[in-house]
Amino acid sequence: MIADLKRKPEARRYLLRMATAMVIYLGSLFAAEILIEDRGLSGAPAYVLAAVPGLSFAALFWIFARLIVEERDEFLRLLYVRQGMVATGLALTAAAVWGFLETYMPVPHVEAFWWPTIWCFGIGVGAIYNKVTMGVAGECM
Amino acid sequence: MKNRLRVLRAERQWSQQDLADRLDVSRQSVNAIETGKYDPSLPLAFRIADVFALTIEDIFLRDPEEQAAQ
């Protein structure tokens, strides 16, 4: 993907959007830690601030969807869709399995924000899946 | 679906990247089509045919089993 940056505006837009979402995510997380945890911010502003890091994940899904829509190369679009399906399957399966484990077995509680985090990890697993099943052709991002 | 892409490309001494540039697609796409891992859409198949100045049927070959089933 790095090599495509010079000639592909959609790849540049993807990285710019991703960097922006990461800055908002880290900034809001940092702000929530300081203002809510340390300084005791409460009420509606605290609820809004606490929701912002989670909403940053909505940006990630939107950015990935835009990458698929804007990609002009139909084969790369297929690879991205496969990556997304692997990531979604992995994250939702992990959430379902752990949910039942928590219900019936004495396992530690996992905070819900880890499931979309696993989705992001799943995008990486999807890239490996593409490489393994498609060989050289499966190299994308 | 089988195709003659590799042969046609070799005849013109084009690399996969050369063909990809002519088609405005990635090298991965050319590789996937050549190796039969991906069948192109009809618009891309027409673009490939145009690049080689051939018809689609001259480049893409019907699967014998598929043909027999019809």
TrEMBL record, chain A:
Keywords associated with the record: Membrane, Transmembrane, Transmembrane helix
Membrane-spanning ranges: 14-36, 48-68, 80-101, 113-132
> Could you tell me what this protein is called?
Uncharacterized protein
UniProt superkingdom? Bacteria
Would the keyword Transmembrane turn up in this protein's UniProt record?
yes
Q: Which InterPro entries match?
A: MFS_trans_sf
From TrEMBL, chain B:
Q: Which organism encodes this protein?
A: Aurantiacibacter zhengii
User: CDD domains recorded for this chain?
Assistant: HTH_XRE (cd00093)
Q: Name one GO molecular function term.
A: DNA binding
**Cited Pfam families:** HTH_3
Protein keywords: DNA-binding
Domain HTH cro/C1-type per the UniProt entry, residue ranges: 5-59
Name by which UniProt lists this protein: Transcriptional regulator
